[in-house]
Amino acid sequence: MSDRGSVKPFVKFNAKQDAELLRKAMKGIGTDEDAILMLLTSRSNDQRQEIKAAYKKAHGKDLVKDLKSELGGKLEDLIVALMSLPRLYDAHELHKAIKGAGTDDKVLIEILVSRTPEQLKEIVKVYKKEYSGKLEKDIMGDTSGHYQRMLIILLQGEREEGVDESRVEKDAKELFTAGAEKFGTDEDKFINILGNRSAEHLRKVFEAYKKLAGCDIEESIEGECTGNLEAVLLAVVKCAKSVPGYFASTLRESMRRAGTDDETLIRIMVSRSEEDMLDIRAKYKKKYGESLYRTIQEDTDGDYAKALMYLCGGDD
């Protein structure tokens, strides 16, 4: 539980009482969506699990199934996501990304690049239990080439720790030689360095790289690589610089294009609400000159918008 989340555990929490409030909001004529989303967005994930248990004990019914039968569309997707355990939700999103029609590479990249080593190890375990298959094997079956290798390295969750001062210059030179100086890019070098060094170490490498190349590493990656490999390398660079910064720009892309990418919007707002939403908001405001709250307000509507704004936790 991070203190940079917008959702904190509810202080006067009473699972039984909450279960009854939800039951009341769903019973009778018409559903009180507002009561449901206000309650669930102001409880932590652990507390939501307790409510689920209390609901089953009192009514012999599955709370999530009942919620699904009362809600629809994007609001339903959002509420079901909120009710899932975080790593189970990640595993589910990855499974959907792999097993759906075509691969949803955006999801693979976002989750594998942004989760901590501990979280990744947990995802692998949960995935195996839920889908009785190996996540690594499923990713390999659905991807190829250098892109596949980068994803598999990230999935190991074995990044080095700390900064190795003696290697900063060397890494920067290797990246420079592998990319800018060479006809045809030596992708292996990029994959090896960006996939294995710590975020602190990489930040120093990027500074050294800029001095050598006269441009940011992102520019070189954009010039040298294409497609999914380019996308995953850029995401790694952004996350090494700042995970909240990465999510701020991903949220921006999900909304400020023609048509809102609701799946991405829901996934980030739910999965970061207890991690670093306050930092994402600060980065967003700084980078785009408007608050995340306002963008959500302008880009979405109805109860769905309300729920997202509750998760955002306030205007800046």
TrEMBL record:
One of its GO terms (cellular component) is cytoplasm. PANTHER family: ANNEXIN (PTHR10502:SF135). A pair of annexin repeats may form one binding site for calcium and phospholipid. Belongs to the annexin family. GO terms for biological process: negative regulation of coagulation. InterPro entries: Annexin, Annexin_repeat, Annexin_repeat_CS, Annexin_sf, ANX5. This is Annexin. It comes from the Eukaryota. GO terms for molecular function: calcium ion binding; calcium-dependent phospholipid binding; phosphatidylserine binding. Coiled coil: none annotated. Pfam families: Annexin. Keywords: Annexin, Calcium, Calcium/phospholipid-binding, Repeat.
